[in-house]
Amino acid sequence: MPRRQYRVSGMSCTGCEVLVESAVESFSAVTFADANAEHGTLEVGYEASLPDAMGEAIDDYGFELGDPIEVV
Question: In terms of pLDDT, which residue wins out, 66 or 41?
Fold first, then answer.
């Protein structure tokens, strides 16, 4: 299963992590999401390809999804 890690700005607590994870996990292609407010990162596991709207879903909660920082 492919995975990618992203920078996410604006997260400051566990509640932020839950919102970001929930937004990303709402897409059927996403198999898991692990947000880390302390490091400002989001790791996403996915099938086939990541949805283009993933960044918009995170933006809706007031966070900003950056470019991938690495493929893990």
Answer: 41
Nearest partner of 51 among 26, 20, 17, judged by Cα: 26
Query: What is the mean predicted confidence (pLDDT) over 2-27?
Result: 95
Closest among 64, 65, 25, 2 to 33, alpha carbons compared: 25
What does the domain layout of the chain look like in residue ranges?
A: 3-71
Q: Is the pTM of this model over 0.90?
A: no
If one counts every other C-beta atom within 10 angstroms of the C-beta of residue 36, the result is: 14
Q: Which of 43, 44, 42, 46 is nearest to 16 (CA)?
A: 42
Query: In a 10 Å sphere around its CB, with 0-12 CB exposed, 13-18 middle and 19+ buried, how is residue 34 labelled?
Result: middle
CATH topology of domain 3-71: Alpha-Beta Plaits (3.30.70)
